[in-house]
Automatic annotation (TrEMBL):
PANTHER family assigned to the protein according to its UniProt record, in alphabetical order: FATTY ACYL-COA REDUCTASE, MALE STERILITY PROTEIN 2-RELATED
Family of this protein: Belongs to the fatty acyl-CoA reductase family.
EC numbers for this chain: 1.2.1.84
Coiled coil location: none
Source organism of this protein record: Anopheles merus (Mosquito)
Function: Catalyzes the reduction of fatty acyl-CoA to fatty alcohols.
InterPro entries per UniProt: FAR (IPR026055), FAR_C (IPR033640), FAR_NAD-bd (IPR013120), NAD(P)-bd_dom_sf (IPR036291)
Catalytic reaction annotation: a long-chain fatty acyl-CoA + 2 NADPH + 2 H(+) = a long-chain primary fatty alcohol + 2 NADP(+) + CoA
Descriptive protein name: Fatty acyl-CoA reductase
A Gene Ontology biological process term: long-chain fatty-acyl-CoA metabolic process
Domain of life: Eukaryota
Residue ranges annotated for the Fatty acyl-CoA reductase C-terminal domain, each copy included: 377-466
Lineage per the UniProt record: Eukaryota, Metazoa, Ecdysozoa, Arthropoda, Hexapoda
Domain Thioester reductase (TE) span(s) in chain numbering: 29-300
Length: 481
């Protein structure tokens, strides 16, 4: 396998024409009901004249794929389309849900398979399990085997132009310097050997062996993503496919509205105590500068990458083209974890809250202080829940502290390490955008004003907390009824 950075072509070969690339196209999206997936679907509907968007959606309990799609389209992320587009109803009708079961060899039924093979030109594989503590074979089943089955299906698509495999920049976080290429150095004889070995183990043995196999990798999520990249390079290099590696994806900068977020994973989840005015200290190195990307920038980069993959497939020799990789990271414009609390606090509406939160929430280079604070908070939470129990009410204080602690421990590795990287393909892609496409797809991370960004960050978190609280109340009312 070619181990050099994959050049997506010189500027002289002509600019990308992203708007034309999507005009009249049929797009297939997995993970469309997730955080990144929703923004991707919204952007396609609002900014591009696509013909149709197929979403592969898994049934959840008694909720069908069609019902899950309807719930998603009724969400606030699509309010901009509803309020500004006269043909909003027609645009939403372009989105079609398909029942998918990724635990089967054939992920869709024969009728849907025929539709996909005859109509789809562009594929975005966004779906993934982001649970960091997943047992390794389960993480591989979701993050590797599902992709394998999807790309086997894509091999039969008659008009296929481009596939974007969404990975993560941290898929190779055991390396201090990360290039734009596939690292096919999966240990223990490779992916197939690991899968075969895990088949014969008990649940307890799988948990123990997961820690052994991971080695220097911090969790099963990033390890399985590394395995998926290697699988793509070995088995599907003949397809027009590229690997897109976003870093930590956080709430939107400007689209569909500033600060929009609908989940509290990773860095966003750790900022919830700041917004709520709670005390929380996290262990980490304050000087570490993480790679972060607003979700709207990430989606714009994905959309451009799909077009660049197609351009490269059509124009660059030799005939056998190695899989291009896009490190969607920007070196120059980063802030340190030590500055993050101040930035988040800058978006709080009350001056006193901004001042107090800087004291209450910190990144500490000494592990003992966050640990002592955690013991105290856990004790307070238990006492508070016991008092509520005396009055016949169910308390959730311990549960909240536990959830934040679990998240903090899961991403501790990333608060203590720093990486350098090559992002030549992303920079080249930026240089190939036409003026109109550059306005439509704003993803130059070096142009982000992080102080301006964080003016809406805390508000976005507060809005999602309110929405979650309203959903809980509605759910309880429905159960009582």
């Amino acid at each position: 396998m070619n181990t050099e950075t994959i050049d997506t072509g010189p500027v002289l070969e002509g600019a990308l024409n992203v708007a034309e690339f999507y005009r009249g196209a049929t797009v297939l999206v997995t993970g469309g009901t997730g955080f990144i997936g929703k923004v991707l679907v919204e952007k396609l509907l609002r900014c591009f004249e696509v013909k149709k968007i197929f979403l592969l959606i898994r049934r959840k309990g008694n909720v069908s794929a069609t019902d899950r799609l309807q719930q998603m389209l009724e969400g606030p992320i699509f309010d901009t389309i509803r309020s500004t587009a006269p043909d909003a109803k027609e645009r939403f009708a372009k989105v079609v849900a398909m029942d998918a079961a990724f635990d089967r060899e054939d992920i869709v039924d024969d009728v849907d398979k025929t539709k996909l093979c005859n109509e789809v030109q562009i594929v975005f594989h966004v779906m993934a399990s982001i649970r960091f503590n997943e047992v390794l074979d389960e993480a591989i089943a979701i993050n590797v085997t599902s992709a394998q089955r999807l790309y086997a299906l894509a091999s039969s698509m008659a008009e296929l132009r481009s596939i974007v495999h969404v990975s993560t920049f941290y898929a190779n976080c055991d390396r201090p310097y990360i290039e734009e290429r596939i690292y096919d150095d999966v240990p223990y004889g490779g992916l197939e050997h690991i899968q075969l070995f895990f088949k014969s183990l008990s649940v307890e043995e799988k948990e123990r062996m997961t820690r052994v196999v991971l080695g220097d990798m911090p969790n099963s999520y990033v390890f399985s993503k590394k395995c998926a990249e290697a699988m793509v390079g070995r088995e599907f290099g003949h397809l027009p496919i590229g690997i897109f590696r976003p870093p930590i994806v956080i709430s939107s900068y400007r689209e569909p509205e500033p600060g929009w977020v609908d989940c509290f994973h990773g860095a966003t989840g750790l900022c919830v105590p700041v917004v709520l005015g709670k005390t929380m200290w996290y262990y980490g190195k304050p000087e570490v500068k993480p790679f972060m990307s607003p979700v709207d920038h990430t989606v714009s980069g994905m959309l451009a990458a799909a077009c660049d993959i197609y351009r490269r497939q059509c124009t660059i020799l030799p005939v056998e083209k190695p899989v291009p990789v896009y490190n969607f990271t920007f070196e120059k414009n980063r802030f340190a974890y030590g500055d993050m609390v101040e930035l988040v606090c800058s978006g709080l509406p009350n001056v006193l809250d901004r001042w107090l939160s800087r004291i209450k929430c910190r990144i500490s280079p000494w592990k003992i202080f966050p640990q002592m604070l955690l013991w105290l908070m856990t004790l307070q939470a238990r006492i508070a829940d016991e008092i509520l129990a005396w009055f016949g009410k169910r308390g959730s204080n311990v549960k909240i502290v536990s959830a934040i602690t679990t998240l903090s421990n899961a991403v501790e590795y990333f608060r203590c390490h720093m990486w350098t990287m090559d992002n030549s393909n992303v920079k080249r892609m930026l240089s190939l955008l036409s003026r109109d496409d550059a306005k439509r797809l704003d993803f130059d991370g070096e142009q982000i004003d992080w102080r301006d960004y964080h003016k809406s960050y805390a508000k976005g978190i507060a809005m999602e907390l309110m929405r979650k609280n309203d959903r809980r109340k509605s759910s309880k009312a429905a159960n009582r009824a």
